[in-house]
Amino acid sequence: VVETQLSSGRNFVRHVHSLEAPKRKYLPFSLCQKHCKLLWSATIFLSTVRVLFFNDLSQPADFSLNHTINMYLTSEEGISLGVWHTVPDRLWKEAQGKDLDWYQKSLTDGSPIFIYLHGNTGNRAAPHRVGVTKVLSALGYHVLVPDYRGFGDSAGEPTEPGLTTDALCIYHWVKSHSGNSLVIIWGHSLGTGVSTNTAVKLADQGVIFDGVILEGAFNSARQEIPVHPFIWYYWKYPGIGIFFPKPWDRNVVVFPTEENLKKMKSPILFLHSEDDHLVPIPIAQQLYEVALNAQNAERVKLVTFDGSLGYLHNGLYRDPKLPGILKNFVQSLQFLKNG
């Protein structure tokens, strides 16, 4: 069961979510041109889709993350971001009862630091996001998981430039507290678009990420639309595409991952399940080729997971081989950084 809370377009989006096999042979809703922007943004930024129970995000221990602190960072005026910082497992006992100052100082211990940029539904407490955090912490890494503006308990409304600004805020905060530690960006789904946008923005300033992981990467927000979980049923009707070109042409939401990859200099690891039902595997293979052509096989890797494992779009964190894959990637980054 899901609930959608939008400041505008409430009835429309709630109707779209009620997919009870319409009997009509025509679209059960009408859209004026002025509503296209709302529809487009609502289907990309599902920040307000929440399960119907209360999540107190200020208490990460409630989600079995008991060596984690909740904090809030100001991305820009009026935009406060909720963030979890989980320390490496080896610090579990020492972390009990510690305050924000202790957690901040722990970032200087030399351990690699991951910033996890999540996908387009829910918040940082989603089970698969907690799962990724646990995998990384068990490997001895710090993990920071923010909710973008409009997600979770973060203020504001989500936009593409806004999400990029939020990611930049988290990155700069981490760098200011972590000395010379490796800082790695892990983007999942929508977060891959945010990650590459942020990487290019920083590259323009002469800053290169130490490493980037792109899990379930898509080429652009538009490419993901035909398999979007809340509008897949309606896409089969003739003419549905006419509602999207106008906002697309106006660059309402773009996330040009392919173009970004051509400009990126960071080592990149693509992770993708062959049975991903939201972003088909050929998209990841296409993006890998683009990144490979822009860099080389030493700096760009693609790891796929057999479809028979049933990981779909969110389940890669369960794979027993994933820790080894991540450890090897981090070691390669440390070699590049020190070499």
From TrEMBL:
Gene, per the UniProt record: si:ch211-117n7.7
GO CC terms, sorted: endoplasmic reticulum membrane
Source domain of life: Eukaryota
Annotated InterPro entries: AB_hydrolase_1, AB_hydrolase_fold
Name of the protein in its database record: Si:ch211-117n7.6
Molecular-function annotations in GO: monoacylglycerol lipase activity; phosphatidylcholine lysophospholipase activity
Gene Ontology biological process terms in this record: monoacylglycerol catabolic process; phosphatidylserine catabolic process
AB hydrolase-1 domain residues: 112-202
